Input
Amino acid sequence: MSQIAAGSAGSEIVLGVIGGVTRASGLLGAKQTRGTLILTDQRVIFAEIGKDRVIQLTRDAGETARDEGRGVVGRMSARSHALDGIADTYRTMAPAAALAESPGNLAIDRSTIRRVKTKRGAAEESVPDRIVIKAADGKHTFHVGGALRSAKEALAAAGLI
Output
């Protein structure tokens, strides 16, 4: 991936975005939060997709489809795909703004990252593919909702693997 969002000298540069990830935390990963990983030259940011935002995006997609004259099936399809492009919004958004969007967002300073691994899940056991980031503050596990190959490419382009 190329440099996507750049600002003035000394500003943080977005190197890649991995959408459709779920952050697993708590005891045995029981607490799960959907979101997007934003890979910058200084940090890895997890931007959660809050319940209110999901509701609003879904509602907006349905209203847009209705305004376009789509039928019931068309509106249902639009609602089901409402979150598909959410990761793209972070490509041009300032990383600091993305981090400030929600109190549940997380930033991992790249200088504290010791290792980044990708792990293929077991399809027959419904175990998802994972990205594991080991940093000074502990281990962060993210389940990949899309293609692990795309996530690996984004991590490699950002110099993390």
In short: The longest strand covers residues 14-25. Residues 1-9 have pLDDT under 50 and may be disordered. Helices lie at 51-67, 72-80, 86-92, 95-100, 148-157. DSSP finds five helices and seven strands in the chain.
